[in-house]
Write a structure and sequence with these properties.
By secondary structure, this protein is an all-alpha fold. The protein has a domain of 105 residues: Alpha Horseshoe (Serine Threonine Protein Phosphatase 5, Tetratricopeptide repeat). It has 15 helices and two strands. Helix 10 packs antiparallel against helix 11. The relative contact order is 0.06. Keywords: Coiled coil, ER-Golgi transport, Golgi apparatus, Membrane, Protein transport, Transport. Required for vesicular transport between the endoplasmic reticulum and the Golgi apparatus. Its main location: Golgi. It is found in: Golgi apparatus; Membrane.
Length: 296
């Protein structure tokens, strides 16, 4: 079966090369037909598990779509390469480069939404391998949506990036990303999510050892409709008070309250950093903060 598919692939390549030839009666290469034949060849190679040859065929298809000035089809072809190259983990960085090139083509073609979705898809696939690159891709995708005034989509992707920044312990950047998320949620008037982001900000700032910044986040959030007196507000006020007074029991109670303990999990644990709060911290994992950056 594999040999048959490889033979079929070579037959399609031969047809493609014929489409590219010119003559006295055919002045221009038929790029559209050549691209179509290379697409068929690529599928045959892929079915035969000849992934390197499939990659070469897809690249030829993309090249001839570009020559034919059909950038959307060229970009789609480069995105398809992602699903070929991911067969080998070491090929993923190369695949991501093609995605980024496809993104530029989508933008030039006037289809930025498709560009952002391709970056998001690439981010999901590279995330288990390279968190730093996933952050970059999610942030780029968010930027594309933001430029198109699609803030709901942009803020969702920013949330993905924020979670990974926490996991990478890049907390200064996470704090900046969270503030941007919060501003977007405020702009689209999703105030409950603003509350959640405030909670996340407080936890991040305390983990950074910046009590002043944590306190400022809560105070600034008093202007949000419904925040003052809410469960989120009371919990953070209590947490900050316990932290300031080095009251380990009070911090423990807040960190084990349903508001924090049962949040949906993409979790990083972080101890408070205050000597009084750190006392007996090995007694239980629940004496640590559970830092969650929601993507919803």
């Amino acid at each position: 079966m594999a040999a048959q598919k490889i033979n079929e692939a070579h037959e399609h390549i031969a047809k493609a090369e014929k489409c590219l030839k010119t003559s006295l009666t055919k002045w221009k290469p038929d790029y559209d037909s050549a691209a179509s034949e290379y697409a068929k060849a690529a599928v045959c190679f892929k079915n035969a598990k000849q992934y390197e040859q499939a990659k070469d065929a897809y690249l030829k298809e993309a090249e001839y779509h570009t020559e034919n000035k059909t950038l959307f089809h060229a970009a789609n072809t480069l995105v398809t390469l992602l699903f070929v190259l991911r067969q080998e983990q070491k090929k993923m960085p190369e695949a991501i480069q093609y995605i980024e090139k496809a993104c530029m083509m989508y933008m030039e073609n006037g289809t930025p939404d498709t560009a952002a979705m391709a970056l998001d898809r690439a981010g999901k696939l590279i995330e288990p391998i390279n968190l730093e690159k996933a952050v970059d891709l999610y942030q780029k995708a968010a930027g594309v949506f933001e430029n198109e005034d699609r803030l709901r989509q942009a803020v969702e992707l920013l949330g993905k990036a924020s979670r990974l920044l926490v996991r990478l312990k890049r907390l200064d950047e996470a704090a900046v990303a969270l503030q941007k998320e919060k501003n977007m949620y405020k702009e689209i008037e999703n105030f409950p999510m603003c509350f959640k982001k405030t909670t996340a900000q407080v936890l991040i700032h305390l983990h950074r050892g910046d009590y002043v910044a944590a306190d400022k986040c809560v105070r600034e959030s008093y202007s949000l409709p419904g925040y003052s007196g809410s469960e989120d507000c009371v919990a953070m006020e209590t947490l900050l008070q316990g932290y300031d007074e080095q009251d380990e029991d009070q911090v423990y109670r807040v960190c084990n309250s349903p508001l924090l303990k049962y949040m949906d999990n993409d979790v990083s644990t972080a101890d408070p950093g205050s000597p009084g709060v750190q006392k007996n911290r090995t007694k239980t994992r629940n004496s640590a903060f559970r830092v969650y950056i929601s993507s919803s």
